Amino acid sequence: MENQSKYIMIERNKFAALVKAHRKCLQILSILTYAHTVKEVRLTFTLEEICELLQMTREEVETQRQRGYIRFSVQNGITVYEITDILRLKNMLEMGRIYRKIDEMVITIPVKKETGNVTDLCTIFATT
User: Fold this and answer.
1) Helices 47-54 & 83-105, crossing angle to 10 degrees?
2) Residue 90 contacts by C-beta under 8 Å, 6 or more apart in sequence?
3) DSSP symbols for 33-77
């Protein structure tokens, strides 16, 4: 079976911006996790807030809940959802979109390695 690696080539400045944004997100997540676990701050959202945040209908949120992606609890008669589940769901949905977008925008070029007969695939973004 052939070894097929995929490479994505992007400009240095764009890569630096992606790393910076990623680090910022990790820091925010770390602070929120600390506040939620150590300080025992209840970070919850109502159904309406989740629908607005994730751009989903009530039915779509219910489907995700039935699939086990988000848990809920009832506080003072109101159904609320934990921020950790919302973050996980949002990440899952966005990564699916990102992978689909990458697949739409790439050009795949077979590249012969100098060290052997293995062919790698070089994937390059087709940007506009």
Assistant:
1) 20
2) 53, 54
3) HHHHHTS----EEEHHHHHHHHT--HHHHHHHHHTTSS-EEEETT
The rounded average pLDDT for each run of 10 residues, N- to C-terminus, in the chain (128 residues) is: 63 90 88 81 87 91 90 90 86 85 73 57 53
To the nearest 10°, report the CA torsion of 64, 67, 68, 73: 60
Nearest to 97 by CA among 61, 55, 48, 126: 55
Instruction: Please give the helix or strand (H or E) that residue 115 lies within, else none.
Output: none
pTM: 0.56
Give the separation between CA 89 and CA 113, rounded to whole angstroms.
40
- Angstrom distance (rounded) from CA 23 to CA 117: 39
